[in-house]
Design a protein that fits this description.
Layout: H1 4-23, H2 44-50, H3 58-61, H4 65-80, E1 86-89, H5 94-108, H6 111-114, E2 132-135, H7 137-146, E3 152-154, E4 162-165
Antiparallel strand pairs: 1-2, 2-4, 3-4
The chain binds zinc ion (ZN).
């Protein structure tokens, strides 16, 4: 027999799992592989929580340390206002970036159009560890409003989730490029 208190705790635990799974859904296109968030000592715990839903720990570990630090600080401040903010994609290998581009060619019908959404490996800031994609949508919107306080700027007008360190903390973000293809010209 389960008493009311236990039942309530179970319901809360299930609700928490539901929220965690939902949070992994990203505007940048998640990889769909979920794993339970590990609890470790900070700052590892914070970094892992930040990348909840990522399939590869190295994705955060290979980011520019200054970028990772800025995103961690932003995520922490977002959470104090009740906004969940995760890195849905961080560092990517050249091979992974190439695969994403090939998938985009299938989806958009041409390399020219695909490059508006996925940069080729030679030009992707993800490959050099200088870019993060932020999710869920509420987190990306929070970043649009507050990112510059941490030096984080939306780089491309068509990607509300893609952020790079493009100014000094509290500085002014440069004008956005229309899309990722703009850098390849
Ligand atoms: Zn991106």
């Amino acid at each position: 027999m389960i008493d009311t208190g236990t039942r309530l705790l179970l319901a809360l635990a299930l609700a928490a799992v539901g929220v965690a799974v939902f949070a992994c859904d990203s505007p940048g296109g998640g990889n769909g592989i979920l794993r339970p968030a590990a609890r470790a000592t900070p700052p590892e715990a914070a970094a892992r929580e930040l990348g909840e839903g990522l399939h590869d720990d190295a994705a955060l570990g290979r980011l520019d340390p200054a970028l990772l630090e800025a995103v961690m600080a932003a995520a922490e401040d977002a959470r104090t206002t009740g906004v969940d903010l995760h890195v849905t994609s961080g560092w990517r290998s050249r091979a992974h970036q190439e695969l994403l581009l090939e998938e985009a060619v299938d989806r958009y019908g041409s390399l020219e159009e695909a490059r508006r959404w996925v940069a080729s490996p030679d030009f992707s800031a993800h490959v050099t560890g200088d870019a993060v994609d932020i999710g869920p949508t509420d987190g990306a919107v929070w970043m649009a409003d507050h990112g510059s306080a941490y030096g984080l700027c939306q780089a491309f007008a068509n990607e509300i989730w893609h952020y790079e360190l493009l100014t000094t903390p509290g500085g002014r973000c440069p004008e956005m490029l229309p899309d990722s293809r703009s850098r390849e010209r």
